[in-house]
UniProtKB/TrEMBL annotation:
Keywords: 4Fe-4S, Carbohydrate metabolism, Gluconate utilization, Iron, Iron-sulfur, Lyase, Metal-binding. NCBIfam families: edd. This is Phosphogluconate dehydratase. It comes from Paracoccus contaminans. The gene is edd. One of its GO terms (molecular function) is metal ion binding.
Amino acid sequence: MAIHPVIERVTDRIRARSHARRSAYLARIARAAEDGPRRAHLSCGNQAHAYAAMPDKADLALTAHPNIGIVTAYNDMLSAHQPYERYPDVIRRAAQAAGATAQVAGGVPAMCDGVTQGRAGMELSLFSRDVIALASGVALSHDTFDAAVWLGICDKIVPGLVIAAASFGHLPAVFLPGGPMPSGLPNDEKARVRQDFAAGKVGREALMAAEMASYHSPGTCTFYGTANTNQMLMEFMGLQLPGSSFVNPDTPLREALTVAGVTRAAAITRLGNDYTPAGAVLDERAFVNGLVGLMATGGSTNLVIHLPAMARAAGIELDIQDFHDISQAVPLMARVYPNGLADVNHFHAAGGIGFLIGQLLDAGLLHEDVRTIAGPGLGRYTAEPRLAEDGLTWVPGTSVSLNDRILRPAADPFAATGGLNMLSGNLGRAVIKISAVKPELHRIEAPVRVFANQSAVKAAFQAGEFTQDTIVVVRFQGPRANGMPELHSLTPTLSVLLDRGLKVALVTDGRMSGASGKVPAAIHLSPEGATGGPIARLRDGDIVRLDAAAGTLDCLAPDFAAREPVIADLTANGEGMGRELFAAFRAHAAPVDQGAGIVV
C-alpha cells in the first residue's frame, strides 16, 4: 500500500525541518561507534574496577563478548515497576545463555503520578523525566557496554529513558516491559464512585474500597493513560519486541519475552553482523509511526509534550502542527478507558497492537520501511508471541477484531479522526483531546472563572458557585511557574457539573492526565502565564470561545490585547517536598510546545 499523502507530507516536513540537527546527531553517534567496544580502550585498572564483582569477569577482560548494561527504574512503590525487582537475575542468565554478560549500570527514579496527584510532589513529576535522562547518562558513562536494556513503563519514565537511549544512540536499546495488572474493578465503576464522592453521595470508605479494588496487584494500571500509551509507542516505534506490551507480569510468557529481549540485545551490537543502534531506529519515520499510534488509539495527551523532547534527543524536531495534521488523517480505531469501557487487557485480547499495526499498514498510514530491534520492517509487529513446546515463537496476529466494541478496522473506525486537535487564537496555542468528549461539547462559548490553582476550583465547587455554563481557567500551571503538574484531580469535579446539565470546559497552561476523559480541556496553553502569555490577561467574566472543530481558542473581550498580564506571586511553588531542588529546572524549562525540556 502506498503511503498516505498526509503521512508522507508530514514526514517530509519533519525531515526538512530537522535536517541540520539530525545530520549533526548522526555524525556524533557515528563517531561514538567508530572505535568498537568502548571498554577495549579502558586501562587495565579501569576495567578491573568495572568487573571486580562479576563472577564471569574473564569473559569481559579477555574476550569480545557483548556486555549489556541494565538501566532500571525498579522500585516497589509503583505497582508497574515492582516486577522489575527480579529482572536483573533473569537478564544475567539470559545474557550468559546468549554468550554475553550483563550488569546493572544504574538505577533511575520513578515516581507515581497516581500517588502525587493533587499534591506538592506532583510539581516534580514532569521534571523527573529530565532527571531520569540525566541519571541514565551517568549509568552509561562508564563506557563499558555494547548495548543497553531499559526497564521502565510509567508516565515520565519511558520518555526519560528514550531521551537517554537516543543520547547514547550508538548503542542498541531494547526496552523490556513489565505488563499490566489483571483486570480489577471496571474503570467506569471506579470513575462513578469518584464522581459520587465529589458530589457528596458516598463517603471516603466507599471511595477507598473502589480504589483498592481497581489498583490491586503488581503491574501497570489497566486504564489507557500515559503508562500504557508509552508501551504502545515502544512497539509502534520498534524499541520493544512485537506483542510484548500487554502481557501480564509474573507469567511464563512474560519471562520468555524478557529473555528474548536480552537475546536480541546481545545479537544487535556492533560486535555482530546485525548492528542496530538506537539512533538508527529512532528516525523521523519511527516518530511519525508513534504519532499515528497515538491518534489511532486515543492515547495520552502527555505524549504531546514527551514526543517532541524524545525526538529532539535524536536530532528530530516535532511541532504541534504535526500532531494535528496526523490526527486529521488517522481514524480512531480503539475504545479503551477513558475513551471507552474496556481496559488494556480487553484491548490486548481483542487483537491489540498487532491488529492495529496491520490495519494501519494496509491503509498506508504507517511507514513499513523502518528499522526495529526485531529486524527490518514494521510488518513484524503484526505478529503475536506464543509459548510452544519448543519455546517462544511468533505467529500471525489476528486480521479481524475479536471485539468490535473495543477495536475496529481502519475502514470502519469509531471516528474518522484521532480526536487530538490543535487550538490557536489570541490565547495562544493549546491541544484538546475530544475522543471521549460528546460532540455537543466540542464548541463552548461562556464566561470564565479564573483560578491560580486546582484547590481553589474545588473550593468554589464545594461552595456551590458554579451555577451556569462556565469555562474554568487554571493558570500559572506551566513548567516555568510550578513544574506543570497534572490537574487530573479536577476531572471528577468538572464531570459532576457536566452531569448537572451545565456546559463546562477547562483552559489551562498546565497538564491533564493521560486518564482525562469527557471534560473538554484546552491544555498545554503556550506561551504560559508565568512568561506573560495571554492567559495571564484573562479576567473573571470574560467570554471565551473554545471551538474544537474550527481549532480556535479566543477571548472575545474587546480590550483583551491591550491589557497588561497579571504577574503572579510564585514563591510558594519553590518550597517543600523537594521543590527547592528544582529551581533551576523551573527557571530554564523550554516552552511546552517544544517539550518543556531541560536537557534537550
